[in-house]
Please model this.
Amino acid sequence: MALWGGRFSSATSDDVTKYSESISFDKRLYKHDIMGSKAHVKMLAAQGIIPAETADAIRAELDKIQKRIETGDFSYDITMEDIHMHIESALIEVLGAEGARVHSARSRNDQVALDIRLYLRDQVDELIAGVRHFQRALVLQADANKDVILPGFTHLQHAQVVVFAHHLLAYVEMLDRDAERLADCRKRLNVCPLGSGALAGSTLPINREMVAEELNFSRCTRNSMDAVADRDFAIELVSALAIFAMHTSRLSEDLILWCSQEFNFVELDDAFCTGSSLMPQKKNPDVCELTRGKTARVYGALTALLTMCKGLPLTYNRDLQEDKLAIFDALDTVQMILKVYPPMIETMVLRKENMRAAASDPALMATDLAEKLVELGVPFRTAHHRVGSFVKYCKEKGKALDEVTLAEMQETIPEATAEFLTLFDPEESVAKRNITGGTGFAQVEKQLEFWKKNLD
Ligand code: ARG
Model:
């Protein structure tokens, strides 16, 4: 009979047992469940709700159970539904009536809310460390290639020349906001729900603050109904993960393009690619493609959580058991991304000559011509129009922008001087973008110094 079997006359049907179990996925909460129970019984004893010897015996037995779980000497049984029931039953099995005191002034509703918060708090700390590591890999690759230039794109069309390091540092910025978002949701995670009971607290004289302090929470939740009903902290975390995955997916898309024969800007190490079962010549950037695909699953987790919560009347409803599948899947996916990407970034090889060659397209410097006109006093819109006509002229003549004479240029840009013919040097074009946040070499150097210092 289940631990809650008192008011039931017959057992749950086998299919319902299978349908409602969560042990197959919530067993990963064991450590945090035990941590929470240990703090709980310590408080119960301090408050005189259970004898001190009982609390000691329970705490010692919980440690043993943890060891048993970790060494594989613990059996799971879906009739015991979830990790909370498993651990409580194991306690009772050994300690009998003493063990049966552990659940005083507690419900699985506040217990599971506690366990998820404890688990996610650890995960967030790991995730932040992982994101920082990822940033360091990007900075390392950027620093090694701070003189390399390539075309920057808008609409996937040649736009203006940029420094390769600047491109990578754009992702470092994105990841920085991801780390900040994680740190921010940790604040709201780090609040202790234990003592909220099923929904209405307890008649027993518990000391919630003591448990919160014991478990290193910043405070207790203020409202017991809110504490057992909401999962917004998990939604927030998964949404931060979804944004992170989106950033990584975009980086992956850049890499996929750069690896293509058409671009041929980088080559990923063999360790991060796979071949074709049919075409012997293939080397495919599967990791990057998988990340685009897995990002969809992280979005799916976010959508599942939001949808799961939107129609729930207060307070706890069993629907909430499903939250863990979505949360764990999103976490596992992102943890894998964080493992695979830093070494993939660090080992990729640049085809600098190809980047440089693509960056030499003089059309990339068309904006520089317009800005030179602005320097000479021409209103920008007029300047833009003149250079546009010049580009059209070149196109009609079948010439590159740097293949015309000054006289030809002056047909469409009357203000053009000999200096205009020198504006097609890609390195100089980059160097001149020496403003805060710009891609000028000096600015990129500054950004690199900033990150090297801050990521140390
Ligand atoms: N396995 C449940 C969950 O994950 C634990 C809480 C069950 N509470 C209840 N009243 N049935 O949500």
